[in-house]
Amino acid sequence: MDPVRYTEFQTLPPILKANIAKEATIHTDEAMQYDNLHQHFAAHASVNHGAEEYVRGDVTTNTVEGYFSIFKRGIKGVHEHCGK
Fold it and tell me: Measuring CA to CA, which residue among 48, 18, 24 is closest to residue 35?
């Protein structure tokens, strides 16, 4: 898959629809690019990081943020020492 170069409203839904089951419940932050995801998936809920809201009931983005944090640390740790 090619990297996502643009994250505008028009760009994200086709990528998400191609990679996520339509039966899924999507949790995001408050970014406007995600406003209409409820039209494409079973459910969409968001938390408002700008208002320091990070969890509301079972709605959170902590799982994906934790995944990418570990992923980025692994890449940095592996490649930081290459060629030195």
Answer: 48
